[in-house]
């Protein structure tokens, strides 16, 4: 039956290709934890089991929780608590669970520790720009120790959603558009949080949002995603699978409809792919209220149907909607779901609690929390990792690095001294309006720290840009919508900025988006510099002094004017607590920038979605007849995926393959020399791309298959090697619906970004 759907050509490819089996996960939990969990399960009533499948809100917030969970905890009705960061309250609630509930099962406390706890690291998109997985691993390891000391055992991190559309606000939380880079960053975060094995100072991860959330229609957060299976398998699911293979203990189901079936009730996703194909044996947690919202989507008829659809889809734990709590026991008693199935769903939750040591050490040592959170090594690490995450986009006439003898600097822009914004969104202590306790260093403060009191530093901030429509999260962060500047206010700010620029030797413009502009429920239609920033920038450049633009933002922005008129542009993203010092390290040349873009940078808002690994068209745009597929702007990116400058220069040469011809089941290796041709040391990121020229499906023009960030002294050459075996060459064929390596001809490129020209080729045969 199936075969009828294949064309003769497809049959040829399928017959001679190699079908690849992909690896299954071994349990993320220990055999000892399993044994203990199974014996505990035998003592539990159905209600107690359902209780373990419920994650209640620790905060009483409209729309989330009407009352504190105390009574439910005492009845054994709460397996986990989210959104409680007050250690005293964590201990109070834990005492109820451990002392008052019949079986004394401790609660597991979960929260979004996305990029640090008190010490806030660069946002995930920034850390991905380092192209150095150890940046993520080190940051998340420190965050895990901090979180655990503060009573958080479970983080809702890493977000591994592929994002091909910069309008989508949550692009800031992920690693960008590429599955290979995304997988490396996902695995590094799993290692950072969970360590070699779960224990008393590690934190359980939740890989989110499963799956296709980043493909929201129009980049509008929460909107439906329509992603065909081949695109899911070849792109969107890849980092999730990588995280599962690295031992991730948790997965969070996404909010939106995936191909018309809400992800939180999607049996294909949560059972067929995740458990059957990948062998996942951990916990699937819903996103907040998502089980209840199966009714809102128009997928479930009411609470009972929602509980039935979610549990049978394979979702273990209901975050905050209380739908399981209120309906699941009835669904079991009615015989629609067996108690044995419920046991399977409870098992990994108990296993996690045993492995994390919660049964032996359920409470937080309140006296030691601040000492752990304020460890000076966190601050030093943050500054170093922030420096590794920055991307130098433009540097005409060697404007950077700056001279350390500068005496008069004008610092312009609303982000120059915005302490909250330099840390970005989703900060643990900043989220609920309590404010950060981390003392962030702004760019203004960083430059002051560097130049001391001898230098004249003038700040003209200009008006803070604001969103037209605020979101539910803004009520927690305190971000407000303010009216746009009037023409008169705008003229006054511009006059001040021009005067400051005229009186300075150099201008540093610090512009971009406020932290709340790149976040959940913070998508936007335009990618321009919000507010009057573009006008201020153009005005100060008109003054004629050298200008350096430092961008603080969580997504690519439309900077096409700046890319032609501002001599130096440094993408700092939201660099975290030590951000201002780290920016200054790069501006003054103590750190040679080595970050590269994890996203294709658009030349205009209207070119989104934009990604380098698209397919060839019937008439590719590099032919003379079609230089672009738009008539008003180039469809080429302003800066390509993988791009970033350095204060030195690199040359790639001697691209070799160990075999020019190989069988589809064989391995190959590519090697390339990278030379630092400049006069100072610097980091290069070697990138390997391939293209399969023909086969059972059209393949992307280029796909990243290997990368390595490497430090080279002036004049130094290193030879780097990358495997090109079945793991790199396989893809999910939409025709055979299997993973295949096909007989074909392949192009290979090596270089410093996705437009690399150093080329070789090889052939695969049956
Ligand atoms: C909703 C977000 O989509 C998710 O990423 C987050 O982990 C939960 N809220 C809990 O804070």
Automatic annotation (TrEMBL):
InterPro entries associated with the record: Cellulose_deg_GH3 (IPR050288), Fn3-like (IPR026891), GH (IPR017853), Glyco_hydro_3_AS (IPR019800), Glyco_hydro_3_C (IPR002772), Glyco_hydro_3_C_sf (IPR036881), Glyco_hydro_3_N (IPR001764), Glyco_hydro_3_N_sf (IPR036962)
GO MF annotations, alphabetized: beta-glucosidase activity
Residues of the Fibronectin type III-like domain: 684-754
Signal peptide: 1-21
GO BP term, pick one: carbohydrate metabolic process
Pfam family, one: Glyco_hydro_3
EC number annotated for this UniProt entry: 3.2.1.21
Record's keyword terms, sorted: Carbohydrate metabolism, Glycosidase, Hydrolase, Signal
Family: Belongs to the glycosyl hydrolase 3 family.
Protein's recorded name: Beta-glucosidase BglX
Organism: Tunturiibacter psychrotolerans
């Amino acid at each position: 039956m199936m075969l009828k759907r294949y064309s003769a050509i497809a049959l040829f490819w399928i017959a001679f290709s190699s079908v690849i089996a992909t690896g299954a996960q071994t349990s993320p939990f220990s055999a000892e934890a399993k044994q203990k969990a199974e014996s505990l399960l035998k003592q539990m009533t159905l209600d107690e089991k359902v209780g373990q499948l419920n994650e209640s809100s620790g905060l009483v917030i409209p729309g989330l929780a009407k009352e504190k969970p105390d009574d439910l905890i005492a009845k054994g009705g709460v397996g986990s608590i989210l959104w409680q960061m007050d250690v005293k309250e964590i201990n109070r609630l834990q005492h109820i669970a451990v002392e008052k509930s019949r079986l004394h099962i401790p609660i597991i406390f979960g929260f979004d520790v996305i990029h640090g706890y008190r010490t806030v690291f660069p946002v995930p998109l920034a850390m991905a720009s380092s192209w150095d997985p150890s940046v993520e691993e080190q940051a998340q390891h420190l965050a895990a120790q901090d979180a655990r000391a503060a009573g958080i055992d479970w983080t809702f991190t890493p977000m591994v959603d592929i994002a091909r559309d910069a309008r989508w606000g949550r692009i800031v939380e992920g690693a960008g558009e590429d599955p290979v880079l995304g997988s490396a960053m996902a695995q590094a975060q799993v290692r950072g949080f969970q360590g070699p094995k779960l224990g008393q100072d590690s934190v359980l991860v939740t890989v989110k949002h499963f799956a296709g959330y980043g493909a929201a229609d129009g980049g509008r957060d929460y909107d439906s995603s329509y992603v065909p299976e081949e695109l899911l398998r070849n792109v969107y699911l890849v980092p999730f699978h990588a995280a599962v293979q690295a031992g991730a203990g948790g997965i969070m189901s996404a909010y939106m409809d995936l191909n018309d079936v809400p992800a939180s009730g999607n049996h294909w996703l949560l059972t067929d792919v995740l458990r059957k194909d990948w062998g996942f044996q951990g916990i699937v947690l819903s996103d907040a209220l998502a089980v209840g919202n199966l009714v809102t989507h128009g997928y479930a008829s009411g609470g009972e149907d929602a509980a039935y659809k979610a549990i049978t889809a394979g979702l273990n734990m209901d975050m905050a909607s209380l739908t399981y709590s209120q309906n699941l026991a009835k669904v079991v008693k009615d015989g629609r779901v067996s108690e044995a199935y419920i046991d399977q769903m409870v098992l990994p939750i108990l296993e996690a609690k045993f492995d994390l040591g919660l049964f032996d050490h359920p409470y937080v040592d309140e006296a030691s929390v601040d000492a752990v959170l304020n460890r000076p090594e966190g601050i030093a690490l943050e500054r170093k990792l922030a420096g590794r995450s920055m991307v130098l986009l433009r540097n005409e006439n060697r404007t950077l690095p700056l001279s350390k003898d500068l005496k008069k600097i004008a610092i312009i822009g609303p982000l120059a001294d915005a302490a909250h914004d330099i840390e970005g969104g989703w900060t643990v202590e900043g989220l609920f309006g309590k404010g950060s306790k981390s003392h962030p260093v702004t760019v203004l403060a960083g430059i002051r720290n560097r130049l001391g009191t001898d230098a004249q530093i003038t700040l003209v901030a200009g008006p803070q840009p604001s969103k037209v429509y605020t979101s539910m999260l803004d009520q927690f962060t305190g971000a407000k919508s303010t009216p746009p500047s009037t023409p008169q206010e705008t003229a006054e700010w511009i006059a001040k900025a021009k005067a400051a620029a005229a009186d300075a030797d150099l201008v540093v413009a610090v512009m971009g988006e406020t932290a709340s502009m790149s976040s959940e429920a913070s998508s936007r239609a335009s990618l321009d510099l919000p507010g009057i920033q573009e006008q201020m920038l153009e005005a100060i450049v008109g003054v004629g002094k050298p200008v350096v633009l430092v961008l603080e933002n969580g997504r690519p922005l439309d900077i096409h004017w700046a890319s032609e008129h501002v001599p130096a542009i440094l993408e700092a993203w939201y660099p975290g607590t030590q951000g201002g010092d780290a920016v200054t390290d790069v501006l003054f040349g103590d750190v040679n920038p080595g970050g590269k873009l994890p996203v294709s940078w658009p030349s205009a808002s209207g070119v989104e979605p934009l990604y380098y690994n698209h397919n060839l068209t019937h008439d590719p745009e590099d032919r003379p007849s079609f230089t672009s597929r738009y008539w008003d702007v180039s469809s080429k990116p302003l800066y390509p995926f993988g791009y970033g400058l350095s204060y030195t220069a690199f040359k790639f040469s001697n691209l070799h393959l160990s075999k020019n011809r190989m069988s589809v089941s064989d391995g190959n290796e590519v090697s390339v020399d990278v030379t630092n041709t400049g006069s100072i040391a610097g980091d290069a990121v070697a990138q390997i791309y391939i293209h399969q020229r023909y086969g059972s499906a059209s393949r992307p023009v280029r796909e990243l298959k290997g990368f390595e960030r490497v430090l080279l002294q002036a004049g130094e050459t290193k030879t780097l090697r990358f495997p090109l075996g079945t793991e790199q060459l396989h893809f999910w064929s939409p025709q055979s619906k299997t993973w295949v390596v096909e007989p074909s001809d392949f192009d290979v490129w090596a270089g410093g970004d996705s437009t690399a020209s150093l080329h070789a080729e090889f052939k695969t045969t049956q």
